[in-house]
Design goal:
alpha+beta, Arc Repressor Mutant, subunit A, Alpha-Beta Plaits, 2 domains, 4-stranded antiparallel sheet, 5 helices, DNA-binding, WH_DNA-bd_sf, transcription regulation, transcription, ArsR-like_HTH
């Protein structure tokens, strides 16, 4: 499927306003409701839309400490990386995990917890106990002047 201008407008609008009604979406992209709904369904079926979510306010949930953690692994084998991936998948504190290049670290994690005590528990009782983790470097977010979940389309 090749995206045209209207498909891109639909994707941009849905990224910003995921709960928009089909009628409102159709109006926003200058289509009638029926063709708009067909296009959205086609975008979903083609895999351009992964799903729909609610973005929960972390502060309201008491999660105030956001950090980025660089992880160094002791071995660089597919098996070691797979074990690490599986282990951290069970940690709800880990929002994102990326196997990276160009740094002294192997992974970059985005982690959210309540406070520094909670971070210490996560670090000592979970993260450093994962087999293969040989180094950890943490950076704490002081301010987030720009946050977005929307990708350029």
């Amino acid at each position: 499927m090749e995206l045209d201008k209207i498909d891109r407008q639909i994707l941009e609008t849905l990224q910003k306003r995921g709960r928009i009604s089909n009628q409102e979406l159709a109006d926003a992209v200058n289509l009638s409701p029926s063709p708009c709904l067909r296009r959205v369904k086609q975008l979903e079926d083609s895999g351009y839309i992964d799903g729909y979510i609610a973005l929960v306010n972390a502060r309201k949930m008491g999660l105030t400490l956001l950090s980025f953690i660089q992880i160094v692994m002791d071995k660089h084998t597919p098996e070691r990386f797979e074990k690490f991936d599986n282990a951290i998948a069970a940690f709800p504190e880990v929002l994102e995990s990326h196997l990276i290049t160009g740094q002294s670290a192997d992974y970059l994690l985005k982690v959210i917890v309540k406070d520094m005590d909670d971070f210490q528990r996560f670090l000592l009782n979970k993260l450093t106990r994962v087999e293969g983790v040989s180094g950890v470097h943490s950076s704490f977010v002081l301010k987030s002047p720009r946050k977005s979940t929307a990708i350029p389309v």
